[in-house]
Amino acid sequence: MTQKQLDESTQYLQSKGFHKPEIGIVLGTGLGKLVDEIEDPLVAHYHNIPFFPLATVEFHSGKLVYGTLKGKKVVVMQGRFHLYEGYEFTDVTYPIRVMRQLGINKLFISNAAGAINLNFKKGDIMLVEDHINLQGGSPLAFKNVAEFGDRFVDMSDPYDPDMRKKIEQIATKMGISLQKGVYAAVVGPQLETKAEYRMLKIIGADAVGMSTVPEVIIANHLRLPVIAVSVLTDECDPDDLEPVNVSEILEVAARTEPKMITLFTELIQLL
């Protein structure tokens, strides 16, 4: 990754009318409908954006959508990139850097995750308060990282406290049950074994997924306030573990998605 590549990606999007968005949003698996709320949308498909990776997961659509949401200019990633698709950390996080260059000053992230905390149920939403990186690497571990910001990034409080507080207030006001907890990021794409679920619980994870953490690390590297929510699509009880059903996971995500959209759109209004 070079600054020249980032500049070319940014200039292409600017030429398509992507002008100074304030808020960037990353939509997780089965959570693409937020874009339907955007007024006067402009669309750029990943395969047309210079140096962008391509989403290879069949239920990730692969486009950036720009427009107005609740009076604010937003740019939304409909479809994200994962390590399990064979990408490097720098590929997975490249769009966050581009959105920052376009002008965003806040980042919202969503994901679909499995509930490790057995007090949480499928269909719940969890506000991510902290995370555990089990992906075996970092998006900051490359030679010329110092050209883009500090090499050693503080992660003592990676999720913006002010936005977290606001989203809790919104959830209370709107009657949305909001769990809070720790998200563990693994590589995937295989789901976890019973022993792995037990380990995740022991080390303090409340939910597990295959994304988000690299994006959050880069947001902190870019001094970009970030918030993340997990839509809990399955319950990971090692003593009563059902075989994974991807279509059911997508169905639970679709059913819960309106609550996530409400939280994000109301938060946009408050900012």
From TrEMBL:
One Pfam match: PNP_UDP_1
Gene behind this protein: deoD
Q: What species is this protein from? A: Muriicola marianensis
Q: What class of enzyme is it?
A: transferase
Keyword Nucleus belongs to the record: no
The protein's matches in InterPro entries, at most eight in alphabetical order, are given as: Nucleoside_phosphorylase_d, Nucleoside_phosphorylase_sf, Pur_Nuc_Pase_Ino/Guo-sp, Purine_phosphorylase
As for what it does, the entry says:
The purine nucleoside phosphorylases catalyze the phosphorolytic breakdown of the N-glycosidic bond in the beta-(deoxy)ribonucleoside molecules, with the formation of the corresponding free purine bases and pentose-1-phosphate.
* Nucleoside phosphorylase domain location: 23-268
Write out the pathway annotation from the protein's UniProt entry: Purine metabolism; purine nucleoside salvage
| EC number per UniProt | 2.4.2.1
Question: What protein am I looking at?
Answer: Purine nucleoside phosphorylase
Q: Which UniProt keywords apply?
A: Glycosyltransferase, Transferase
The record's similarity note reads: Belongs to the PNP/MTAP phosphorylase family.
